[in-house]
Design a protein that fits this description.
The chain is α+β, with helices and mostly antiparallel strands. A hairpin with a 4-residue loop joins strand 1 (9-12) and strand 2 (17-20). The protein has 2 helices and 5 strands, in the order E-E-E-E-H-E-H. The longest helix is centred in the middle third of the chain and has 15 residues, at 56-70. The protein has helices spanning 56-70, 80-89, and strands at residues 9-12, 17-20, 26-34, 37-46, 74-76. It holds the Pfam family Acetyltransf_CG. It comes from Camelina sativa.
Length: 109
């Protein structure tokens, strides 16, 4: 029995997002500078209903957090999926969350 291959997540710098190769599922971000800190604000995660339940939102978050870690960025989890679902399930990623916002961020969506 063959195991299903994990979907590939790609960085689309021009559109400020990480996305599946088919461009259907994505996590959008905005970059901010705060003094000497560079902050990646994760503002929206989208997975179409046809791909729900495949773990794509989590894979998108992992890609964004790995990118932030590799580039020494802090993360602001504006997106409710990131703050309310991904981070509680992945506490080892919390060290990347921008310290001033980690307790007060709530999604405006």
């Amino acid at each position: 029995m063959a195991t299903k291959e994990k979907p590939k997540i790609v960085w689309n710098e021009g559109r400020h997002r990480f996305e599946t190769e088919d461009h259907e599922a994505f996590i959008e971000y905005k970059m901010k500078n705060e003094g000497s800190k560079v902050i990646m604000d994760l503002v929206r995660t989208f997975v179409p209903p046809s791909k729900a339940g495949l773990g794509l939102a989590s894979l998108l978050c992992v890609a964004a957090f790995e990118h932030a870690s590799e580039h020494s960025f802090s993360i602001v989890p504006t997106c409710s999926y990131v703050s309310d679902t991904f981070l509680p399930r992945n506490p080892s990623s919390k060290h990347l969350v921008h310290s001033e916002d980690s307790k007060t961020i709530k999604s405006s969506i």
